[in-house]
Each structure stands twice: as structure tokens, then as C-alpha cells.
Design a protein that fits this description.
Elements (H helix, E strand, L loop, with lengths): L8 H9 L5 H19 L2 E4 L1 H16 L11 E5 L27 H8 L3 E6 L11 E2 L3 E2 L1 E2 L2 E5 L5 H8 L5 E6 L5 H7 L2 E4 L19 E6 L2 H11 L30 E4 L9 H13 L4 E3 L4 H27 L5 H11 L3 H24 L2 E5 L12 E4 L2 E4 H4 L5 H4 L5 E6 L8 E6 L5 H13 L10
Helix pairs in contact: 2-3, 7-14, 9-10, 9-11
């Protein structure tokens, strides 16, 4: 029997290429795992067995013919349901888009992974239109944390994180506007990468906030994450925000030493209200990297407020035609925020964008002094499903809007971040740390995360 849920993506591909197992066998094992486990997690909104089997057969046929099948030969993966999947309506977690025509082609990143031999299993649950941090979807139900199904997986890419952490797929794609890769990666104990804004193509993904939507991946180990990221790089003219910078592979340099790096811990806003688990995890990573400096990124509280303004205004603008005639079809938690965004004065948006330029300049200046900045990914471990409020310090605040306290200021200015999972002594749930680098230095963030993983400081643990 194939030990599918424990296999890394690179191990699967290696065994398939060597004909020790077939892509068809791996695909059947993956589909069986999804069939057995998805009812616990509610990670998938659509499973595509016919497509997966056909793609697996193509990989096996290529290998039998002596052709190179690609670096992800036979590796199952799945995607947040805001990515276009040929033949499916792109739901973006909504009810209102159930009647849109099926996508005519796959999203750019899906095509790139398929060209590398990966096998798509299906689409994954999310907060409606990516507006949330909990993946408690009014239309498709809550996604549950693989370590404790009474708790959330985080969001908005909660289905992606739960599917990877729960052993359903070794790789998944998500999006991150205000923290939607980093929050679920933290709560589900896996690695997540939010690249620099514009590094990976968003072509064929349903937008939320054009000016700071990012797309990226999840994996159970750093090398798989780096390989997936490398394969997704490349020019895609249909995404006007994408940078045309050269491809910069990260996997070949993953094992390079990390001596003499200038590493600092972000203080101030990035520790304010954090619970003990978040601070202890941060301290453990900082100690492993020899980080003794604590620095502040000025006005990060204002940056978060400005990010909220831009999010609400751009999101509302996109959805205003439907809100005018079909408001009742929206998830209530999403609808109220879009309606508020539609009423936001234009001067607020203008001021937020002006401040954004100033804040980015402060961050880039800090990243000239330091190679790596560290911060908590979430202020706490995974809250309970249905939990409305959480207490941080002496404040009781809403869960849904505030799990991204420490992620929003970073995506607001497009910096690349690797989230790495920490297991504290005796802990039953993980929590993540953000490894932040200067724009276009994803390879450095992955290199640092790999060092920490090999040192045993961070890493994935299979749920019991």
C-alpha cells in the first residue's frame, strides 16, 4: 500500500520517474484519501476524478515512451476555488457565481504545474470572495483544522491549508491579499509563501483587491514549496500587475549557508496583543538565527487601517453591480463589509494610497539595514469554529477581522514572506512565524526557512 499522505511531492515525482510507482497509482491513492478524509475537513468544494486519472495516464504514457515527464511527475495538487479550472464555474467561495459559465481554460499557474507533470485533484474551500481569515463559508460550510476539527483552518485559503496539512495533497495554491496564505499556514502548521507583489501571475484567478492581491503556494516542507514556486515563475502578459523580472530559481540555492545574515525582530505593532504562543514561537526562531535586535516599522497600525480602506473600497467597486440587485445572495459576513466599502469617501482611499507609498519607503529603508525581519504570523493558535471574539491583551476583538493583525501591513506593501510552522514544547496546535525579506528576495526567505527546518526549529507534524 502506498503511504500517500506522508509522501513529499519530490519523493512522489522521483518514484514516478523511476517507475517504482505509477502516476495512476498515486492518483488513486490520493482520490481515496480525499474520499476518506474530506468529510472531516470540508476542504474540497469540487473533486475531479476523471480529469485527475486522465492526467496521470498521460504522465505514465510519457514515461513509458522515454519522454521526460517533468519535475512534478504524478504529484497531486489542488487549488483555491478562485482559480479558473477548465470545465468548472469559478466560484470564489460564492453562491452568486454558481451560474456563471464554466472556465474555458485553466489559470496560468495551474497550466504551469500541469506542464511540470502535476495532477489536479480539484478545487478548495475559501472565505467568500477571499474576504476573511476563517473559512467559515455561509454557502459551503466551515473548513476544519486537521489537528482539532473543532477549530478553524484560517482563511481565506483555509481549504488549501487544511488539504495540505491533513495529507490530502502535498501541494496547494492559494491567494493572499491581507494574509490569506500566511494565516491558514500558521494555524494549520505548514509552510506558505506569499511572493513579492507581481512575481507570480494572477491570470485566471478571480480578483479581490487588484492593488495587492498575491498568489502563492502551500507545502509540508520547504523544498517542495521552493520547487512549486520555481515552476510557477514566468511571464504572463494578461496580468498587467506582473513584473517582467527574470526567473530566479530558489531550489538550487536552498542549502546555502545562512551565516552573517542581518536578522531583526519586528516589535511594536507586530507584538502588541500577541499571546504567549505567538511570542514564544517568535523568540525560538529569533534565537536560532542569532537575531538580537528588535526594530520597529513606524506607523504599522496606520498601515493596517489604510489596508482596510483600500480593501473595502476596491472590493466594493468590483461587486457593486451585483450588490445593487442580488445583495441577498452574498454571505452576510462579506456583504456588510462590501456595502460599507461602497459608502467609503473617496478621500479616504486617496489618503490611504498616499500613506502606502510613505510606509513602503520606511520598510525598504529598514530592509537595507537588515536582510530578514521576523514577526508572528497570527496573534494566537487556531480559534474555535464559530468563535466570534478573542481576547488579546486586555482587548476583546472580533476573530474574523483580526487574525491578520500582523500580516496586513506587510502585504499592503507587497513584501515577500515565508510562513514557517513552530511546535512549542507540549503544544497540541502549531503557530507560524513570518520570515520577511526585501522585494524579489523570495529565495532568501526560503533559504532561511529551510535552515530552520533542517535544524528542527520549524517543521510540519502529521495530525494524529
Amino acid at each position: 500500500m502506498i503511504p500517500y499522505p506522508t509522501l513529499a511531492a519530490r519523493d512522489i515525482a522521483r518514484q514516478v520517474r523511476r517507475r517504482e510507482i505509477t502516476a495512476a497509482e498515486i492518483t488513486e491513492a490520493a482520490l481515496a484519501t480525499v474520499n476518506q478524509q474530506n468529510h472531516r475537513l470540508n476542504a474540497f468544494t469540487a473533486v475531479l476524478p476523471e480529469r485527475a486519472r486522465a492526467e496521470a495516464v498521460r504522465v505514465d504514457v510519457d514515461i513509458a515512451a522515454g519522454h521526460k515527464p517533468g519535475p512534478l511527475a504524478g504529484v497531486p495538487f489542488a487549488v483555491k476555488n478562485l482559480f479558473d479550472v477548465k470545465g468548472l464555474s469559478t466560484l470564489a467561495g460564492s453562491k452568486i457565481r454558481r451560474d456563471v459559465p464554466p472556465a474555458q481554460q485553466d489559470a496560468s499557474l495551474i497550466r504551469r504545474l500541469a506542464q511540470a507533470g502535476a495532477v489536479l485533484l480539484g478545487a478548495l474551500n475559501m472565505d467568500e470572495f477571499a474576504y476573511g481569515f476563517v473559512t467559515e463559508n455561509a454557502h459551503y460550510g466551515a473548513t476544519h483544522n486537521p489537528y482539532d476539527t473543532a477549530r478553524i483552518a484560517g482563511g481565506s485559503s483555509g481549504g488549501s491549508a487544511a488539504a495540505v496539512a491533513g495529507g490530502l495533497v502535498p501541494l496547494a495554491l492559494g491567494s493572499d491579499t491581507n494574509g490569506s496564505i500566511r494565516v491558514p499556514a500558521s494555524l494549520c502548521g505548514i509552510f506558505g509563501l506569499k511572493p513579492t507583489y507581481g512575481r507570480l501571475s494572477r491570470a485566471g484567478s478571480f480578483p479581490f483587491v487588484h492593488s495587492f492581491d498575491h498568489v502563492g503556494g502551500f507545502a509540508r516542507n520547504v523544498a517542495d514549496l521552493a520547487l512549486c514556486y520555481d515552476l510557477m515563475q514566468g511571464e504572463e502578459p494578461s496580468d498587467p500587475a506582473q513584473s517582467l523580472r527574470p526567473i530566479e530559481p530558489s531550489l538550487p540555492n536552498l542549502q546555502m549557508p545562512v551565516e552573517n545574515l542581518r536578522v531583526a525582530v519586528l516589535g511594536g505593532w507586530f507584538q502588541q496583543g500577541a499571546l504567549a504562543d505567538a511570542l514564544d514561537a517568535l523568540a525560538r526562531v529569533a534565537a536560532a538565527l542569532g537575531a538580537t535586535a528588535t526594530v520597529e516599522l513606524a506607523a504599522s497600525d496606520v498601515a493596517r487601517a489604510a489596508a482596510f480602506c483600500v480593501t473595502a473600497a476596491e472590493g466594493a467597486n468590483l461587486h457593486l453591480p451585483d450588490l445593487r440587485v442580488r445583495a441577498g445572495d452574498y454571505d452576510p459576513a462579506t456583504r456588510s463589509r462590501f456595502l460599507a466599502g461602497a459608502l467609503l469617501p473617496g478621500q479616504y482611499l486617496l489618503q490611504a494610497q498616499r500613506f502606502r507609498a510613505w510606509y513602503r519607503a520606511q520598510a525598504l529603508e529598514l530592509l537595507q539595514q537588515y536582510d530578514v525581519l521576523l514577526a508572528p504570523a497570527t496573534p494566537c493558535i487556531a480559534p474555535l469554529v464559530g468563535q466570534v471574539f478573542m481576547k488579546l491583551g486586555d482587548r476583546e476583538i472580533p476573530v474574523r477581522a483580526n487574525l491578520g493583525l500582523y500580516t496586513q501591513p506587510i502585504s499592503f506593501i507587497g513584501l515577500p514572506v515565508v510562513t514557517a510552522p513552530v511546535w512549542l514544547d507540549g503544544a497540541e496546535l502549531p503557530i507560524g512565524v513570518q520570515i520577511i525579506t526585501a522585494p524579489w528576495r523570495e529565495a532568501l526567505g526560503l533559504q532561511v526557512a529551510n535552515y530552520l527546518e533542517l535544524s528542527g526549529v520549524v517543521g510540519y507534524r502529521a495530525p494524529a
